[in-house]
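Progress note, sequence design subtask.
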C-alpha cells in the first residue's frame, strides 16, 4: 500500500503534556450508535426511549477525521484505535481504515468492537490493515448475553471471534468488564478459554462513567480480587511486558496456556502516570482523560474553516490541560461526583 508522507512539525508542537508524558495514542469514537444496548452503557434517557443519539451532521466526517489524524501524526501520534459506539456500524468504515493506513507515520491502527459484525468484516478489516482487534464480551452464556446487551446474538459474536482468529488476528483480545452478581461467576470459564485459544482475556475494572452506569461499591470487583480467585485454578505466571499490552498486566495460567490473561485496573491501580492517550469523541470533542469531562471543541475549529495550524493548536490545548491523574477515588469520596460523559460518545 502506498503511504502518504506527512512532514513533521517543530518540536514545540509535539504532544508532550505538563507532566512530561508523550502522547502517542489517539482513540477515535467513530459514532455513538451501537447495535447493542449494554446495561452499563445505555443512558437513562435511552432507557426511557428518548432521542439521544447524535445526528449524522454532528459526527465528524471521515474527511475531517483524516485531517485531524494527519496533523496529529506530525505531532507524535503513532497509534490510533477506532471505537465508539460500535465502529463497525458506521457506513464505509473499511474505506476510512484504508485511508488511515495510507498515512505514513501512522504505524498502528486498532479496533475495539462488540463483535456482532465481525464474522462479516474480519477478513476485510485484516486486509485493510487493522493490526489488532479487541472484542468486548462480558459473558459466555447466550441468555445472559441477551440480558446484559439487550440483544440475543451471542452466537454472532462467538462466530466473529473465531473468524477473527481464522483470518490472522493473533492474539485477539477479549475485553471482559467484571461485575459482581452479574458475570463474576464466569471468571474461571473465561480464564479456561485462554488455556486453549490464542486469546488475551482482559478483565477490566468497572468504572463509574455516565448517568447509566450500574456502578456501585457492590458491583465493582478489583483486579486483585479476581487474581486471588484465580489462584485456585493454577499458577498465574507473569509474562514479559509488550508494548501492545498497553496498561494491562499480563499472565498465563500455567505453562501450557496458548493464550493469556490481562488485568486492566483503572480504579484500583490507575496508570495515569504512564497515560499516553488522547480521545476524540464522536461529537468532535478532544478529551485528554477518559474520566474528566473537560473537552476542547475541535468540531467547531474544523467547521469554522480552521486550517492545520488551528487543529494543531486545539490538540496542544487539549494536551496542556491533561490532568495528572483521574483522582476518581477522591472525587467519589468528596462529592459522589462521577464522570458524566457517555462512554459511547467518548469512545471506551
Ligand atoms: N462497541 C465497541 C465495543 O463494544 O467494544 C466499542 C465501544 S465500548 C464503549 C468499549 C469498551 O468499553 C467495551 O469493552 C465496554 O465493555 C467498555 N465499557 C463500557 N462502559 C464501561 C464501564 N463503565 N467500565 C468499564 N468498561 C466499560
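Output:
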Amino acid at each position: 500500500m502506498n503511504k502518504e508522507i506527512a512532514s513533521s512539525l517543530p518540536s514545540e508542537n509535539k504532544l508532550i503534556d505538563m507532566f512530561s508524558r508523550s502522547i502517542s495514542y489517539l482513540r477515535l469514537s467513530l459514532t455513538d450508535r451501537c447495535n447493542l444496548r449494554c446495561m452499563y452503557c445505555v443512558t437513562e434517557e435511552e432507557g426511557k426511549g428518548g432521542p439521544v443519539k447524535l445526528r449524522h451532521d454532528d459526527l465528524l466526517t471521515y474527511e475531517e477525521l483524516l485531517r485531524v489524524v494527519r496533523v496529529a501524526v506530525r505531532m507524535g501520534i503513532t497509534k490510533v484505535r477506532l471505537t465508539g459506539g460500535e465502529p463497525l456500524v458506521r457506513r464505509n468504515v473499511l474505506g476510512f481504515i484504508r485511508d488511515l493506513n495510507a498515512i505514513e507515520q501512522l504505524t498502528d491502527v486498532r479496533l475495539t468492537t462488540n463483535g456482532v459484525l465481525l464474522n462479516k468484516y474480519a477478513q476485510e478489516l485484516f486486509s485493510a490493515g487493522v493490526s489488532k482487534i479487541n472484542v468486548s464480551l462480558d459473558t459466555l452464556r447466550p441468555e445472559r448475553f441477551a440480558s446484559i446487551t439487550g440483544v440475543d446474538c451471542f452466537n454472532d459474536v462467538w462466530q466473529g471471534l473465531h473468524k477473527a482468529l481464522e483470518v490472522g488476528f493473533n492474539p485477539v483480545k477479549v475485553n471482559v468488564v467484571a461485575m459482581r452478581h452479574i458475570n463474576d461467576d464466569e471468571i474461571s470459564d473465561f480464564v479456561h478459554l485462554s488455556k486453549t485459544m490464542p486469546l488475551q482475556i482482559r478483565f477490566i475494572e468497572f468504572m463509574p462513567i455516565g448517568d447509566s452506569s450500574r456502578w456501585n461499591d457492590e458491583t465493582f470487583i478489583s483486579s486483585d480480587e479476581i487474581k486471588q480467585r484465580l489462584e485456585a485454578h493454577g499458577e498465574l505466571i507473569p509474562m514479559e511486558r509488550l508494548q501492545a499490552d498497553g496498561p494491562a498486566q499480563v499472565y498465563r495460567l500455567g505453562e501450557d496456556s496458548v493464550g493469556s490473561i490481562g488485568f486492566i485496573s483503572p480504579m484500583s491501580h490507575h496508570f495515569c502516570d504512564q497515560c499516553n492517550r488522547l480521545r476524540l469523541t464522536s461529537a468532535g470533542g478532544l478529551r485528554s482523560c477518559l474520566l474528566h469531562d473537560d473537552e476542547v471543541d475541535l468540531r467547531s475549529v474544523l467547521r469554522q474553516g480552521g486550517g492545520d495550524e488551528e487543529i494543531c493548536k486545539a490538540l496542544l490545548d487539549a494536551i496542556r490541560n491533561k490532568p495528572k491523574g483521574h483522582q476518581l477515588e477522591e472525587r467519589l469520596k468528596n462529592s459522589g461526583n462521577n464522570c458524566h460523559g457517555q462512554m459511547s460518545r467518548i469512545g471506551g
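The longest helix spans residues 154-167. Work on this subtask will continue into the next period as scheduled.
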